[in-house]
Specification:
Number of helices: 6
Order of helices and strands: HHHHHH
Strand content: under 5%
Shape: globular
Low-confidence stretches: none
Mean pLDDT: 94
């Protein structure tokens, strides 16, 4: 494989896997935990404005995850998801240490890094963004 094919494959894999994980966590907040349960958990964890934050975060994770999978408005959603994970890291997980089994930050840190990487490099060639914004001379081509 040439470098361009490897780069395209790497971007696509990272975007789809990160998107899947974000969407799964958003879905979990809506369906397994419920929004009311997520609000209560956020409040218990000390998340500010938990009653507003819970549905906003659940929606961002679900919609943003699907957007990453498809490569739609990728840089925007990836940046928002990175900020979301940094908030989770500093507001909730940092005091528990590194390991997820003790409530630590290893998962949110890797998700933040993945989302930030996608925000920096964009969706790549295999994406809706490329179809919509990827023309050579377009001022919007930076979105792809």
């Amino acid at each position: 494989m040439n470098q361009s094919t490897l780069t395209t494959s790497a971007r696509t894999i990272l975007r789809i896997v990160a998107g899947f994980l974000f969407a799964a966590h958003g879905w979990q907040k809506f369906n397994e935990f419920t929004i009311a349960g997520t609000q209560a958990a956020f409040a218990q964890m000390g998340v500010p404005a938990a009653s507003v934050a819970a549905p906003v975060i659940a929606t961002l994770e679900l919609v943003g995850g699907v957007a990453l999978i498809l490569g739609v408005l990728t840089r925007v959603f990836a940046a928002l998801l990175a900020v979301n994970m940094l908030g989770a890291l500093f507001l909730v997980h940092a005091p528990a240490g590194i390991y997820a089994e003790t409530g630590g930050y290893e998962l949110v840190l890797i998700l933040a890094a993945a989302a930030l990487a996608v925000a920096l490099v964009g969706a790549g060639k295999v994406s809706v963004d490329k179809v919509l914004f990827g023309r050579g001379g377009s001022r919007l081509s930076v979105r792809a």
